[in-house]
Amino acid sequence: MSEKVETNLKKLRKKIDSVDRRIIRLLRRRFEAVEEVAKVKKNLGLGANDEAREREVIQNCKNAAKGLDKEFVEKLAKLILAQSKKIQSRK
């Protein structure tokens, strides 16, 4: 591999690493909001599961997934929702 190609590859990988860090920060912010929702739900005597809201979140994610594989986005949304429910069940 030429030095120029290797340098370009390193730059691209740094860009990916930067995006990954932003994704993690956004997930942290999301889960902090989930903790707040959990407190409200607890005060109202509600459980962690809200199937209508889950369907809405998944659909919103799929609608925003322009240029991305919708099946991947749906799986990702379900994974995030599973973690959200786990957080809520601890509160």
What's the SSE blueprint?
Layout: H1 3-44, H2 51-63, H3 70-90
Helix pairs in contact: 1-3, 2-3
Would you write up a description of this structure?
This protein has helices at 3-44, 51-63, 70-90. By secondary structure, it is mainly alpha-helical. The protein has one domain: Chorismate Mutase Domain, subunit A (Up-down Bundle), CATH 1.20.59. It is elongated. The termini are far apart. The model has no long low-confidence stretch (mean pLDDT 95).
CATH superfamily: Chorismate mutase
- Radius of gyration, in Å, reads 18 Å
Structural class category: mainly alpha
Q: Care to count the β-strands?
A: 0
Number of continuous helical runs: 3
From N to C, what is the helix and strand string?
HHH
- The end-to-end distance, rounded to whole angstroms, is 52 Å
What is the CATH C-level name? Mainly Alpha
Low-confidence stretches: none
Keywords:
single chain, 91 residues, mainly alpha, Chorismate Mutase Domain, subunit A, 84% helix, 0% strand, elongated
Brief overview:
The protein is mainly alpha-helical. It has one domain (3-90): Chorismate mutase (Chorismate Mutase Domain, subunit A, Up-down Bundle). The chain contains three helices and no strands.
